[in-house]
Amino acid sequence: MLKTVSSVSIVCVLLGIGNIQAQQSTLPASPDTILFQNVELEGAPAGTALMGLARLYGINLTVEENLDIPITLHLDSITAEDLFRHLASAYPLVIERRGDIRHIRRRQESDREQKLDISWQMGRLELEARDVRIDSLGSALARRRIMTLLPGDMGQRKLSGFISTSQPEAGIRALLGSHDLEMVRQGPGIFLVRERKARESEQEFELYADGGFVTFSLRKAPLEQVLRQLARVLEWNVFFYGQVEGEVTASAENIPAMRALELLLVGTGLGIRLEEQSLLVGNADLVEFGEVRLIQLKHLKVEGLIDRLPETIKEKATLEMIAEQNGVLASGSPSALNAVEAFIQSIDHPLPQILFETLVVDFYDEVGSELGLDIGVGAPRDTTYAQTFFPEVDVETRGTYITGKLSIQDHLPIVSHLPDDFYIRLRALEQEGRVRIRSRPQLATLNGSPATLTVGTTQYFLIRSETTFAQQTVQTRISEQFETIEANMLLQITPWVTTTGEIITQIRPEFNTPQGTLNAEVPPTINHRIVDTTVRLRDGETIILGGLVQETENEQERRFPLLWRIPLLGKLFVSKVQSTTTSELMIYLTPHVYYGDEGAVIPPDGDM
């Protein structure tokens, strides 16, 4: 409840810096019950202005000496307690309450409220810090098993900032960097906090080992010092032969110790050798002893491998192919052999194996007709032969039969006697045939290697040649020689498997078929049909190659001279044979890719 106050208006000029108008209380009151009316200050020193208000209203108040922070405000109808809260929040002032006495002083750095919120869930760090000491931050991070910070001399330094990251080390490093601090790795998850120095002239040196693997961050670090420190953390002895000079700038994480040493010494002319936990460092020609090492391949063939090695590697070692072991016998320094082995391992990966299911179908359609009358004299046919009237007509009669029939006809005179081997033959025929030749070969090959299938026959024919030469007499020498002609089907497939799983396939089918009847004395005519194409397929996808159509038309006529020209009746003196042959080749191809872990390359059951 507010105290009763008089309505007398008092205007005080405090050092000429502001006006205070308020109701003067007629009774003693506490700051909680005093109501200021029309308080106006402009640039007034805090100590002087507040002491004036205290004397005016009878408030128990003490003020720090020389509290000259300027304050400017205009308040109306506000309690003294609310005024003190506003001053503490708007100005660097601290209002301390000691019973009924208020003490006002300048805010110090130690008065700021500390805040530290850390969330570490699902591998993500959320951190909010306000005026948090480094040693407190380190303790909080260690309790949550995020990392360990060794504050050193920086434990009292305070940090403020906000981090939200899935990489805690990078986040904490950035937070410290915003306060001119940095982290230096001392071990796995352990970092020392120190002041950041100028990078232009600084030598950075971070190196630690864990189970034979080393991690380091070096900048302008003396090489000899690096080698000594590396030997120390690995618990090795170290011996130097000659002067080790130069600086190194490098960064690596969790790599084998010997590999790290090789990389640090590249281009220095120095070599290393490890003997029973003792590291020897010196001129490469003196320190590195020659070795002989058999490097065996797991997936590739050794043939041609040495030619693929870079010249910079081959010139440092002597290499020999050992086909029986499918490996390379290498001799040279350990570093040179390590380089050879590392390169071979980088390319010695399982090659894809591709199985091709192939279906080859060759269709033959043949349509033919024959119509003619044959009359002649020749060797007698078999004494028994069949007369055919359906579905084709094939009728033949001999001279004896005709003579006999004519002799029994009394009213027909016998013009003459026909020879026994005289014959007359009538043929009338139309035929149509279809042949389907189907083959289903399966071919398996490695990536980039051709697979070839050849099926066919070899036709032999005899070549005679005559050579005439004169000695005392003219002589002729006859020589005979057999030559061959291949009549076959050849299918060649070369696949390449891409990184996307597609199969680039070069397909070359070739069909060589003889035409006509084979004759051992005459070379046959060979019909060639070849396709050469490159396609892109996926595992299990089928491609069809077609359009290899060949059509052959044959027509043969036998005519009786002059008589065949007689209109209408001339057709009786013509024998005609016609045939049309059409062939079409279709190829169905389906690839399947295997990498060696699936077992035998057996295609799935079922027809294509």
By helix and strand content, what is the structural category?
Answer: alpha+beta
Unreliable stretches: 1-28, 380-385, 598-608
Number of DSSP strand runs: 35
Q: In DSSP terms, counting alpha (H) and pi (I) runs of 4 or more, how many helices?
A: 11
Strand content: over 45%
The N- and C-terminal alpha carbons lie at a distance of: 101 Å
Overall geometric form: elongated
Which radius of gyration do the C-alpha atoms yield? 55 Å
Strand count, sense and barrel status of the largest sheet are: 6 strands, antiparallel
Instruction: Give the overall pLDDT as a whole number.
Output: 76
Helix content: 10-25%
List the helices and strands and how they pair.
Layout: E1 5-13, E2 18-25, E3 35-36, E4 39-45, H1 46-57, E5 61-63, E6 70-75, E7 78-79, H2 80-90, E8 93-98, E9 101-106, E10 115-121, E11 124-133, H3 134-143, E12 148-150, E13 158-165, H4 168-177, E14 181-187, E15 190-195, E16 204-210, E17 213-222, H5 223-233, E18 237-240, E19 247-256, H6 257-264, E20 270-275, E21 278-283, H7 284-287, E22 291-296, H8 305-308, H9 311-314, E23 317-322, E24 327-332, H10 334-347, E25 353-377, E26 393-398, H11 399-407, E27 422-439, E28 442-446, E29 451-470, E30 474-497, E31 503-515, E32 525-530, E33 533-537, E34 543-559, E35 574-594
Parallel strand pairs: 5-9, 12-15, 18-21
Antiparallel strand pairs: 1-2, 2-4, 3-7, 4-6, 8-9, 10-11, 11-13, 14-15, 16-17, 17-19, 20-21, 22-24, 23-24, 25-27, 25-28, 25-35, 26-27, 29-30, 30-31, 31-32, 31-33, 34-35
